[in-house]
Every structure is written in structure tokens, then in C-alpha cells.
Amino acid sequence: MHHDLDLHLDGPELTAALTDIASVSGEEGPLADALERALRRLPHLSLTRHGNTLVARTELGKSERVVLAGHIDTVPHAGNFPSKWEGERTRLSGVGTSDMKAGVAVQLRLAATIDAPNRDVTYVFYECEEVNVERNGLFLLARDAPGLLDGSFAVLLEPSGGVVEGGCQGTLRASITVDGARAHTARSWMGRNAIHQAGAVLEILRGWTPRKPVVDGLEYHEGLNAVAITGGVAGNVVPDECVVTVNYRFAPDRSAQQAEDYIRELFSRWPVAILDVAPGARPGLTAPAAAAFVAAVGGDPRAKLGWTDVARFAELGIPAVNYGPGISEIAHTPGEYVETAQITAAERRLRGWLSG
Amino acid sequence: MHHDLDLHLDGPELTAALTDIASVSGEEGPLADALERALRRLPHLSLTRHGNTLVARTELGKSERVVLAGHIDTVPHAGNFPSKWEGERTRLSGVGTSDMKAGVAVQLRLAATIDAPNRDVTYVFYECEEVNVERNGLFLLARDAPGLLDGSFAVLLEPSGGVVEGGCQGTLRASITVDGARAHTARSWMGRNAIHQAGAVLEILRGWTPRKPVVDGLEYHEGLNAVAITGGVAGNVVPDECVVTVNYRFAPDRSAQQAEDYIRELFSRWPVAILDVAPGARPGLTAPAAAAFVAAVGGDPRAKLGWTDVARFAELGIPAVNYGPGISEIAHTPGEYVETAQITAAERRLRGWLSG
Question: Which A residues, 167 through 206, put their C-beta within 8 Å of a C-beta on chain B?
């Protein structure tokens, strides 16, 4: 189907139009086509397409360049497509409204209406954020054409309730293998029950106290959870193995290596295998570009606890924050919605920052 | 294939011949055919076939009738078929040698050579003991023709190392469901981790002290084990459910209902579902027929800890014991074997009991 986007619509209306072009991860083609046609009409932007990812840049030769980025994919529909207005158009509900068609609408409005910004701006609209990293448009861009992401500061328009969220926590998954010795349950004292032994792992988890370090002025809140447990051979056999999988969410004052060391030390009585790890990102709000941004949009920044693509910019050496309309807590739920007032407010504040 | 059994062979040789007729559960036909032809030639026995189960009875009008029973199936082969002699024919190794072709050989030798026993004897050769109960030949016989199992006492020639094993423990499986509340692991304090909570179930299991009650003079030894544990939703989700499956092996001074009540009480903080339960059997060695048997074969009886078809006779109101050549601990292992001396000894003692 051929979709046309009217960039003269206001932020909330444009959010509805974007929401109603289905773009579940891997199926962003029609939306990327519509965005490409709309952006192509803006003479002050130079446009590059990479897969279903679009990069639109002003080329004004300013001393500073900032990046505004948002993903265009959504999680699968859950009976919540297309969008619906609620109240007196105070809310728009539907899949992807908060996460993050509203943010994309704000990016588009800024791209279409600010032809002479006070700093050079790179607008990135990228694919496949909701699925595994190998397909993530920002990851592919960083790998294949990192120059397109150059800048001194980046804003991800992820839903943050209109508050600046700085940095992000890292995430590590590890499996802890508790062993035992098999025996028939009729003579269980001939064996050693691995599931019973795993109680000691759970005791450590239950007794664990989360760190809440303050990093660059923002307070983080760590988490350590069993996310899976498996054990058992047969209904009459004392099991010889029980595997507990844990997920450690660590504050950005720890590196991935330090997080790994910490988990190995905490469970040093058992073999520990690291399944995956993604480093966090310090908020970096003391960097001049970030401080200027916070001053311009106002409010009290808070720590981002989940992992976001902010960490990807951090790896490229670019300080980044989350700042966008929408509520992250209801993202991925059938009842997802966005407050229209937040869309308008985010656009106004970002416009002030870029045209002040 | 057509097999012929020579009942003039001695016990160990007959064990080898029986072992070399494959009879994995469900495939006992050829062995049952061979047994039927051999037993048919014995004029002092009346023979009934039920599926692949054979019942051969003396009909001498004695005041007492005893049952000698053994299953003719084996677990699947594990590179240990056919049988092999070891040492100076001191051992016969192979699948089913201990469990329980040796016992079947002893039954056959007694059936063939004692034409005027001092009590009426019912020899039962039954199918499918190693698989689920609905296919068990003794279960089917008890259901369809219970009169064929009549008697005042029964001996199961299961491997017991030539020691009389009395009664058997019951077995019960139950699942304990621990609940929690889902949350994203980045904000785990919004949820309640069911796997962590399950640590309290494991604590009860680790701290549990087995009862060792003496029942009718024999000491039992209970067991309570987690045999499975499952929990987990996804790598980034605090799980809202963890299920622990336990197996309780209970001494025969407790009924199935008492065992169930005990488990529900022990884990009263959580929903408990009883998955299956099989009652045990008291040893009943004080009954006259049993006492006479123990006096005749000698040795110190011990408690049977595993569940066996002894419990099935108990349900029919017939006191029963295990007594046979072979070692139960190595049954079902690739290295299964039987000592030839045990075969000869068991035959001699049972002959003394039936012809004294």
C-alpha cells in the first residue's frame, strides 16, 4: 500500500497518521517508504537510506551537530491497531503510540519546520529496535556508516514522560549450575539432590540488597533476579543438576567486566556461565552539550533504569539521553496510549532548544 | 522366532536361556510362547494364559495355597544382550539377568520338578512390570481374573540378594506452586519473584528429617525429594510462578491418605496438587504363612524401600514378600549381572519350603 504523510499536521495528528501505518519489526518497509517520500521534499535536508533506516541531515557547517533518533518499528499488534482517539482527543491509544510513534512525529515536525537550526541536526529514523540487536538499524548504521551518526550529543525520543532520562543501566544474564548425584528416590540418601542444593543460590538472591549509586548526579537502582530455573530427571530420580538463570541490571558506574566479576564472585561456589552482557551508559549530563540541552528543556533529569540505545551512542563516544513523549511503563501492553499534551510539549521544548 | 526351553537345564543355564529370548516390555510374545509350550508339557499343572501372562497351578486340594510370581519383561537393551558368562561361570551378565530372568528360572525349575508340593502352588509369569501400571500383567489379572491369584501368601521373586524383603514403601508425587508478580527486571521491585520465593520450599526440603519407623519388626527409611523445578517467563521478566514437584516415599505405617495430609500440611503455605499416589504394604511377617516361609528360607528379613507389586498383593489381602536371586541396585544399568550361586541357593531354599 502507498501511504502519504502530511507534515503540516500537528504533532498529535501526525502521531495518529504514523501509528496507522503498521510497522511491526521487520515490516517497516511501507512506513520507511512514506517517510522517505516526505523527507525527500524538504530541500534543507540531505537524505540517506540504509535498509529501512533513514538519516536526514542539515549541512549548515555549524560548529556543533546533534542527533535526534527514534525507532519506527513497534511490537506486534494486540487488538490495538489502528489508533483511537479518547477523551476530547486528550489521548491517542494504539500499538506504538507511546513507543514511539509520538516521538517520531516530534522528530518529523522539527525536521519539516526548522530549516535554519542553531546547530546542525541529524534526524535518524531507524528499524528493528524491538528485536535482537543484529537487526537494529542503529547498530547497522554504527557498523556500516558510523560517520552518519557523528555528533557531540544525541537525544533518543523514547517515551520518558517528557522528563530527561540520563544514561542507562547495563544488563547481564548468567547461568549458575548446581550439581548433585543421581539416585533412585526410594534410596535418596545414596544421592545428592541438586534442586535442594540450589536453595543456597536462591538464598543469596533473596538476601541480596540492591546498590543505588549516584552517578553524575543521578540515582540508579540495581536489580538481581532469577529469571529461570530448571531441574529434574524423572519422577523417581534424585536430580543431579539444577540450573538457575539470573539477570543482573547494573548501574553505569560498573563496566560489563566489573559486573561479570561481581556475579562470578557472588556465586563463586558454583560454575557460572555468562550468557550475554550489554554495558550501561553514564548519564554524562555534565558534558557541555548535555548541560545545555537540560537547561533548554527544563525539568529534573532522572536515571534511566532500563537498557536503551543510549548505550550504543555511549559506545560511539557520544553523550546521549532519552527525552520524549509517552509512558514507558505501558509500552508493549494492549492498553498503550500517549497523552496528546505531552507530544505538543516535547515538540515545543525541543524547538526552543534547536532554534533558541 | 520359535524358542524351546529345556527345563532340565540347571538354574544358571536356564537363566541364560531365558535371558537370550529378548522380552523388552510389550514384546514378551516369543518368551510367553516358549514358556507356554514348556509348562504345557507338565501334567501336574493346569495352565491359563491371559495376554502374555501365564498362570500354572497345582490342583492338589491342599488346605494352603501359595503364589510364586515373577515378571518376564525387561527394560530396553543397553548393549548388554545376549547374556555373557563371566569368571568361571560365577556370574551371568546381561539385560534382565538380575531383574528378573534368574527369578523366573527358579520358578520354572520348581514348577517342573516338584510335582507333589506340601502346599498348592500358583506360578505366575507376568508381562509389563517395567512400564506403566495399566499394562502390568499382575494388575490385569487382578482386575479380570482375581480368583487365579487366590492364596494365603505370595512370594515375588524380584532380586533381593537372597534376603527376604518385607512390605514396601508407598510413593506420592505432588506439585507445589509458588506465585509471584511479574515485572520488568529493570524495575524488579515492582514485582515479586516467584523463583526467589520458592527458596522457602527448598529450605523445608533441605531441613527435612526422614522418619525411620519400625513396622512389624522391620525398619523403613522415608525420603522426600524435589524431582523437578520449573519457573521463568523470559530473560528480562521477574517470573510470577515457580512449580516444585516432590516425591514422597513413605513407610507402610502411613496410608496414602495420611501421606497426602502430611504433604499438604508440610507445604501449607502454598497450593499443593497431588499428582499420583500408590500405597505401601506392611511386611505382615507375623502372619502364619509368612512366618513359616521366613523360618524355612532363613536369614534376617529386611524392609523393602522401593515400591513393588508386593503392594498389589496387599491390596488383594494377601501377605507378600520379595525373595529372589539378583541385586536390585544394579538392575536397569548396562552392567547388570547375577551371581550364579544366588540362583542355586534361592532354588534350594524354596524347594525346601515347598517340599519339606
Answer: 169, 171, 173, 184-189, 193, 195-196, 198-199, 202-203, 205-206
Task: Give residues with Cβ within 8 angstroms of B192, minimum separation 6.
Answer: B180, B181, B238, B240
Question: d(Cα A182, Cα A186) in Å, to the nearest integer?
Answer: 12
User: Closest Cα partner for A347 from A107, A31, A23?
Assistant: A107
Along chain B (356 residues), what's the average pLDDT of each consecutive run of 10 residues?
Answer: 88 98 97 98 97 98 97 93 95 96 98 97 96 89 95 95 92 96 89 97 97 93 97 90 97 96 98 94 86 92 89 90 92 91 97 91
Smallest CA–CA separation between A251 and chain B, in Å?
11
Q: State the ipTM, two decimals.
A: 0.80
DSSP A76: P
Q: Which backbone phi and psi does B138 adopt, to 5 degrees?
A: -70, -40
Model pTM? 0.80
User: Pick from A230, A271, A237, A264: which is nearest to A248 by CA?
Assistant: A264
Interface test with chain A among B168, B221, B225, by most A beta carbons within 10 Å:
B225
- Alpha-helix runs per DSSP H in chain A: 11-19, 29-40, 102-113, 137-144, 194-207, 256-266, 288-297, 310-315, 340-355
In the stretch 236-295 of chain B, residues with CB closer than 8 A to chain A read 236-239, 242, 244-245, 247, 249, 275
Beta bridge partners of A170: A250
DSSP secondary structure string, A293-318? Answer: HHHHH-S--EE--S--THHHHHHTT-
Contact A185 B225 (CB under 8 A): yes
Place of cell 532519552: A322
> Which residues does chain B have within 8 Å of residue A223's beta carbon, measured at their own beta carbons?
185-189
Q: Taking CA atoms, what residue in A is nearest to B173?
A: A235
Residues A199, A205, A209, CA angle at the centre, nearest 5°?
Answer: 150
Judged on CB neighbours under 10 Å (0-12, 13-18, 19+), B76 is exposed
